[in-house]
Write a structure and sequence with these properties.
Layout lengths: L6 E10 L6 E11 L3 E5 L6 H8 L8 E3 L2 E4 L2 E2 L5 H10 L1 E4 L3 H4 L6 H12 L4 H14 L5 H5 L8 H12 L6 E5 L7 H18 L2 E6 L2 H7 L2 E6 L2 E7 L9 H8 L20
Parallel strand pairs: 3-9, 3-10, 7-8, 8-9
Antiparallel strand pairs: 1-2, 1-4, 1-5, 5-6, 10-11
Helix pairs in contact: 4-5, 4-7, 5-7, 7-8
């Protein structure tokens, strides 16, 4: 990338203690994020979500994060106090978690949860925050914003809950949005709708996106560039449109294990990890 990166990590490592000694769940990962949609793919346990949490300062104890450099624009994130990191997460860096059932506060109305972002970060009045929250619900294409504003998370569908999460995380127009499996629990039709909403909003807000997913077909269609992770490391970086033509053995294994409607094989191949 010719332009200065928005987010840059160099030799990012996350370790957890174990009986056998420190366990590296993210191992010397280095990459930069520009004004793009960057996909991160890999199997469960490959380090995708932990990489994202490390960038946002959200790795729980006793996990330890080390790096040569973690920069947001020219700002050294490792030098920030906890309070400064929290302020940055709320305004410039945001993250959509996997399942709104577990991410939304079950005892607070969804509209109030969105309005809280405006009150906390923009110092908006209660009335202004409500108006802005209603506007965000409309922007994520919820048909009846005023009704949904007063509903609790258990009263809305999974697709609507994911739209609420998108509205909440994009309320402050962040520079960087990390979406961790935002469509994993949705059916194909709703998944496409959610991606259309997300795509439109990040374009309107000029937001860079890190999109974490197991779905290689989805990432190939939706993203600009892809990082492939295996056992905590980035094993390949390539344009998203070239994902299915990759020659790396791990990426080839992931691609070849995908079922196809016209595939006549009796059994799908599995990864031979001994050769990786």
């Amino acid at each position: 990338m010719n332009e200065a990166p928005i987010l840059h990590a160099e030799d990012l490592t996350v370790t957890f203690p174990s009986r056998g000694g420190p366990l590296r769940v993210v191992d010397n990962v280095s990459f930069s994020l520009g004004q793009e949609k960057l996909g991160i793919v890999g199997e469960s346990g490959s380090g995708k979500s932990m990489t994202a949490r490390a960038l946002l300062g959200l790795v729980p104890l006793p996990g330890q994060v080390t790096a040569q450099r973690i920069h947001y624009r020219a700002q050294d994130l490792q030098a920030l106090s906890p309070a400064a990191y929290r302020a940055l997460r709320g305004t410039k860096l945001s993250m959509i978690l996997q399942d709104p059932k577990f991410s939304l506060n079950p005892v607070q109305r969804v509209g109030h949860q969105i309005a809280e972002s405006f009150r906390l970060h923009d110092r908006a009045s209660r009335k202004e925050a409500k108006e802005q929250a209603l506007d965000m619900l409309a922007r994520v294409r919820i048909a009846h914003p005023a009704r949904v504003f007063h509903q609790y998370p258990h009263e809305i569908s999974g697709g609507m809950g994911q739209r609420v999460m998108i509205a909440m995380m994009l309320a402050t127009k962040p520079d960087v949005l990390i979406a961790d499996e935002p469509t994993s629990a949705l059916d194909v039709t709703v998944r496409r709708q959610i991606l259309d909403v997300l795509d439109a909003l990040i374009a309107d807000n000029n937001t860079a996106l890190i999109f974490i997913s197991h779905d290689l077909n989805l990432v190939a269609q939706f993203c600009d560039r892809v990082l492939v992770m295996y056992r905590g490391r980035i094993v390949e970086t390539l344009p998203a449109h070239a994902l299915h033509a990759s020659q790396h053995p791990y990426t080839r294994g992931l691609v070849e294990s995908l079922p196809q409607l016209d595939d006549r094989r009796r059994r799908l191949p599995t990864l031979d990890r001994a050769r990786l």
